[in-house]
Amino acid sequence: MSPHLSRRDFFAVLGGGIVVLLIADDADAQETGGGRGRGMREQLPEQVSAWLHIGENGAVTVFTGKVEVGQNARTSLTQAVAEELRAPAESIRMVMGDTDLTPYDMGTFGSRTTPTMWPQMRKAAAAAREMLIDLAAEKWNVDRASISVTNGHVSAAAHSANFGELTHGQKLTKSIPSSVTLEPATEWRVAGTSLAKVNGPQIVTGAHKYSFDVSRPGMLHGKVLRPDSFGAQLASLDSSAAEAMPGVKVVRDGNFVGVTAPDMPAAERALAALKAQWQPAAAPTNSRDVFAFFKSHAQNAPNGGAALTKYSVAYIAHVPLEPRAAVAEWGSDGKLTVWTGTQRPFGVRSELAAKFGLTDDRVHVLMPDTGSGYGGKHEGDAAVEAAVLAKAAGKPVKLNWNREEEMTWAYFRPAGLIEVTGKVSPDGTLTNWEFHNYNSGSSGLNSPYEVASKHEQFHQTPMPLRQGSYRGLAATANHFVRESYMDELAHSIKMDPLEFRLKNAKDERLRNAIAAAADKFGWKARRKTAGRGFGIAAGFEKGGYVATCAEVSISPKGEVHVVRIVEAFECGAIVNPEHLRNQVDGAVAMGIGGALFEHIDFEDGRILTDRLSKYRVPRFSDMPVIESVLLDRKDLPSAGAGETPIVGVAPAIGNAIFDATGKRLRSLPMVPKGMPTGESTASLL
Amino acid sequence: MASITELDVNGTRRRIGADGERSLLSVLRDDLELTGTKFGCGEGQCAACTVLVDGQPMKSCITKLASVAAKRIVTIEGLAPKGKLHPVQEAFLEADALQCGWCTPGMIMGAVGLLKRFPNASEADIVKGMDGHICRCGTYPRVVAAIRAAARKGVHA
What we know:
The complex is a heterodimer of chains A (685) and B (157). Chain A has 685 residues and is α/β, with parallel strands linked by helices.
């Protein structure tokens, strides 16, 4: 939030009514001015995590630093407020990711919105409901206990009022601690139901303005000259032809070169007219040798010891269908305003403030609901570039990245080398486990299975490509290897892969997920036929338990098609069943891409797979039948669901391919060119 | 290439002044401010930019303005001109066939075009007909369900 915004400012911006502030730290929670707004502290406390305003017209506006990138947080948070405020969902407006209006938030990632912000929203709304009851009790001179709130109306025996009638003429604030208790999920009315996407109509009509679509009066269009290769230095630049074009400005700041022009075609022509010479930097490695690079450059790599089985995962791209985009505008007072699609609006604000030597309150970042992220939109590259150009041009500048820029100059899901070994007793008990992950990351590193002796380690290495967050982080890589190797161990003692997992899984929630997926899939009744195979995988990540069963078909030419996926998922009490199912569908689709064919090829500091004609993503024809089994645990807190459903997809498919062919594919993607001929495992080192 | 001065968009003749070599997408978005049509790849691989040209779905990012100057163009903004949703738009909402929504306008225009050719489109027809469209959020099964639902309702718009 803006700690800079005082409560007086707050009412000045929003008008009168009542405001509830949710304080993350209980020690600072207090009712101010006897609940009447008199003597309020001038500055808002720093640790406010959400706030809610009910205006004098009864309009409910809720403010959160979380953002909407397709995961339907806007809808789920609306449900949280509707649930506790007992108001219709359509009466609630959610202001998200606006750094001048919403409380500070670290960012929308790590499946944290549901476990953290969602209950906070409920608490703020519950407190607002109690304030409305207080107002009604005082106004009607009736006992609080006789008052009920339903469907946006407050009523007692002979009295009824809508919210606006109660908040009219008020300027009340209330701070509440985050420790307020809430009703259990068994009592939910709106939460737990499949409320439709709240801004769906704006999207299907094309009315919603994404960052890519934002327009400002007098706005220019910008383009940035990208280096020839990663790390290349600008040796010389001839910009005379571009600068001779009407309305074109060339901006150079060290290695950064950009142009602005009155319209996009002119900006593109100006960019094309720049003549630059680049001095290349030495490329540390390429996509063929990168796994050996990881091993030889790793910290604390084990020397000798047990023979380890090598697995690998390639770099892949997020491919958000809306590329990075920003519009930057400098006010006459020197304040910078930027509209951009990001999962970290406050992080982007800090980037901009640092770049231009401004304090945070001189930078305003707005985040329109964005054309997806999947962990790929944490940084403010486009925002900073647009702001540099706008400052030089003295006018607002729009900078939309194209697909090649998005696939080269953003960042990637890290590639990784993973080495594993394990031992199993003849009765199927896992006794030893050793697991080393090089570069891809530590999320999901630890096995959810019980094992007497284990060693699991993440090894940092230098990063040959820019890398970062991705849906599920390294949990996809670590689950791929763990669950594939569990399959190898099961086959080594001729034990059914399902039985082997159940033998070693002691966590009840994990066992329930495995049993539910196997049951729906018909695991025990499966019948093998030529060219068909069945696989299972399971896991635990970010508070959710998942089990995935896959059926694959393999044509005589070696083409692999995923025929059917059954996925059981348990993430505590379900907030919105249909949107949860949609997330599971989406995770399966995305998981198939990384499992079967997605990979970044690079050489000499250049991305070779820098467009959709060179980088294959899943399409309609790649889709299996997807059946999800949602396990609703109303007795448990809700966990996030955007990431975990992806982790079991690759290993379930790999295990099914092994079942069909006897070939163990240990590299993601597994079949970029169909089933490999010859040796079943590519030589990695 | 000569400048194009008029374009028939969503039932209205719009005055423009644009080089005929430019992409239809660029003219729709940048000149006419019809930003409902989306850029995804610029090479006809994702179909986020799909519009109807004389009733046929076309990828506007690889369609030159000059080639459609005399034709009728319908964008997502023209599908429900009077505020009432087109049955395909309704079907997408009912099937929750969207997440981030960036591909959705192109998907809907593609679906409207598909249903003109195959009013009773089967699942196989839909997969084949829509395979040029990318939804990175992976709502494919829901899009298929939405188009089938619209077909069952008898959409011949």
